[in-house]
Amino acid sequence: MKQCKSISTIIFLVVLLSFMIPSMLVLPISSASTMNKAEKTPQKMEERKQTNVLNEKEAMTVAVYRAQTEAIDNLPLEEYVAGVVASEMPAGFEMEALKAQALAARTYIVKKLMSPSHHDTPKDADVTDTVQHQVYKDSKGLREMWGKAYEVNMKKITEAVKATEGKIMTYNDQPIFAAFFSISNGFTENAGDYWGEDIPYLKAIESPWDKQVSTFLSKKSIPIREFEDKLGVTLDHTSDIGIITARTPGNRVAKVSIKDKEFSGRDIREKLDLRSTDFYWEKSGDHIIITTKGYGHGVGLSQYGANEMAKEGKGYEEIVRHYYRGIEISSSDAYLSKQVARK
């Protein structure tokens, strides 16, 4: 009897274990699977975030009004930036200077895209392809400009743009107005002294490198009659053709008096089509000989100054921090996200 009970007990235990063992095996596997899912979820979320940012970058386009054809080209942001760098700065410049130009060009257009309206552009375009905003040429225009050097030059430009991709300059967490020009007179100009609006990061600072540029000085000869017509003045037969009464902190002409009229340096530059507002003149026979220093409005980044800095081993971040005071180099992602959402 006892033996039967023992056999019955053994049979009962065997049956019980046959049910319990599979459950015991399944539980750890199921738990491990759940843990793996939990571990992978943050990674997948991060991957989705990165994908969204990439999609936003790919979705961001710039509507460029082409002045010659009066058409609008919708271009991917980075393609537009490359076209601007290629058009605005000589491809033979140092790589770090080209990177600085790429950063300036991208910052300029991101700020422009964030503007609520584009009242200064035709047909609701974001920008024109002229000096009114930033000069832009497409591959056809660049091939015409560079000829056989197109492939080599474009590869270099693309490398510079790629090295700064996703970066812009900010001040107080906002994209800056990244003004730039060709050659300084040894200083940059206060934004307020040229455009009448003070901007904290666009201040007159030294740029001594520009003086090494071969085209730092330039002369222009204007017939006296043309000089008088364009300025609305009448000169006498003496050598007196006006005096400079004030200069800016950037050592450019602020005010000049000719007979009974007063002009700003910018007035004179624009009316006589001069290279800069740092000038002096003299009468020679029936012509006025005008000597200018530098080339451009003088506000922001000096392109030739940047190139000379690069030759000395300065990196693009050091270059832009010199010309744009107190700025930060930031990711463009947040600003592009806002713009994509707006569109």
UniProtKB/TrEMBL annotation:
It holds the Pfam family SpoIID. InterPro entries: Bact_Sporulation_Assoc, SpoIID/LytB, SpoIID/LytB_N, Spore_II_D_firmicutes. Residues 66-171 form the Sporulation stage II protein D amidase enhancer LytB N-terminal domain. It comes from the Bacteria. PANTHER family: AMIDASE ENHANCER, N-ACETYLMURAMOYL-L-ALANINE AMIDASE-RELATED. This is Stage II sporulation protein D. The lineage of its organism: Bacteria, Bacillati, Bacillota, Bacilli, Bacillales.
